Amino acid sequence: MRVWLRRNAIACIASAMVATGCASDPGRAPAPDPSPSEPPATAEATQGLAPVTVAVNPALAQAPFDEPRQALVPAGWSMSVWARVPKARLAAWAPDGALLVSQPSTGEVQRLAPTDARPRQSRVLAGLDQPHGLAFAGDTLYVAESDQVDAYTYADGTATDPRTIAPNLPDAESPDLQGAYAHALKSVAIGPDGSVYFSIGSTGNITAADRDADPPRATIMRVPPGGGPAEPFATGVRNGTGLAVAPDGAVWTAVNNRDNVADPQTAEVRQEYVSLHPPESVARLTPGRELGWPFCNPDGGPARLPLIRDVQTNADGSRLDCAALPPIEQSLGAHAAPLGMSFTDGALPAPYSSGALVGVHGSWNREPPYAPEVAFFGWHNGELADKQTLVGGFQSEDGSRWGRPVAAVVGPDGAVYVTDDYADAVYRLAPPGR
């Protein structure tokens, strides 16, 4: 039995230790060229959304649903509490029509089988090391733990025949990290050719030594079809928790970028600048792509963001030529904290028929706070359009919150299922008539 409780506690402590950043010599860099307009300070664009009271079965009406809660959803849609799962994180639909939900805090994977009433809940896996990412390829279930990626044969609600696809991954108990690891949770996605992609987050805020570690941290890794050693697929990815394969087979990531960045024109860390910089990257990955962290940051937005030098780590540009890097395809506002990412193609009514769904956890270090939401990026000819809010209303004007979405996945019934690790819930967001 693995000691996942202790590991989770160590990871939380480490996260608190590094959350304030670890800046190096803040030497002044030349002012960057004028950039596109900054991401808006407002939390969510609510055009076309309407307030609805979240429906709750009395048996599920524990806090925060012991009082009415309102969400913002597309006009005519409904939202209900479908299940209560403590600290529910990422989710994937199984071939048998059940929804699997990861619980890193308990080391378990839960199975929610739809019924006419509440879903029937059972435990598929237990005793794991902070299981987070879940993905299916046929009847094979992939689970990203903090220290390895495993595959299981899934049938009739059970996962058997475990085999390790990628071993010895860094987590809080890695000898060289000695508990100081803020981003141990990993995500996984499967390419159309059977390649396995998984994220390895950075140790901390601007821990440049991650790039030279073995395996390198702050990367998206790839295991080739049929197995073999994992190799870096994309680098400079601070924490690519959002990881998904698009309808055309391309791999995309939604990235938690750095905190407490200095203003490149003054080399000072000012809240006014930090609140709006850098935007969170949403990027298409190609073999060998470099996203710049911790030497370059995206700037401007919302689309085709150039990368500019980080004054604290790359003031003279000698560590990485930011101007030579391709622009970032899309973005969320600074400190939005994107987590789960999935694609839908033709399952939802217009204007949400095809696109990327991203669970947005919301900021901790921004004024005003970036509100939690489910974001939607329309998919057109291999490109993602600018962000829309699909579900909002989780945050009050005073910054208090009753929920924080993690992931959103479309179910076989044409509804969107949203996990929330703050409200300990799974929501069902249904278009009209579903």
Write the layout of secondary structure elements.
Layout: H1 4-18, E1 49-53, E2 70-74, E3 78-83, E4 91-93, E5 99-103, E6 108-113, E7 120-125, E8 133-137, E9 140-144, E10 149-155, E11 158-166, E12 188-190, E13 196-200, E14 219-223, E15 231-235, E16 242-245, E17 251-254, H2 271-274, E18 280-285, E19 289-290, E20 296-298, E21 307-309, E22 330-332, E23 338-345, E24 354-360, E25 373-380, E26 383-391, E27 405-410, E28 416-420, E29 425-430
Parallel strand pairs: 15-19
Antiparallel strand pairs: 1-2, 3-29, 4-5, 5-6, 6-7, 8-9, 9-10, 10-11, 12-13, 13-14, 14-15, 16-17, 17-18, 18-22, 20-21, 23-24, 24-25, 25-26, 27-28, 28-29
Question: What does this molecule look like?
Answer:
Helices cover 4% and strands 35% of the residues. The chain is mainly β and 434 residues long. The strands form 8 sheets. A 5-stranded mixed sheet has the order 12-13-14-15-19, with no helix packed on it. The chain is globular, with a radius of gyration of 20 Å. The N and C termini lie far apart (42 Å). Residues 1-44 have low confidence and may be disordered.
